[in-house]
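Summary of Year 1 activities. Much of the first year was spent building the evaluation harness for sequence design. The harness presents a backbone, in tokenized form, and records the residue chosen at every position. We chose the following record to illustrate the format because it has been used consistently in internal testing since the harness was completed.
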């Protein structure tokens, strides 16, 4: 799940769940639109 919200500044949280473990990462610039190789 990707969630955008305002805290002290606007950022996005990327949340991943697997094997009943939830991990959350803050992405201040958002999700990249292009794949880098």
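For this record, the design step produced the sequence shown next.
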């Amino acid at each position: 799940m990707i969630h955008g919200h305002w805290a002290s500044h606007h950022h996005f949280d990327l949340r991943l769940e697997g094997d009943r473990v939830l991990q959350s990462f803050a992405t201040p610039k958002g999700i990249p639109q292009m794949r880098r190789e």
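The chain has a mean pLDDT of 74. Quantitative recovery figures across the full test set are reported in Table 2.
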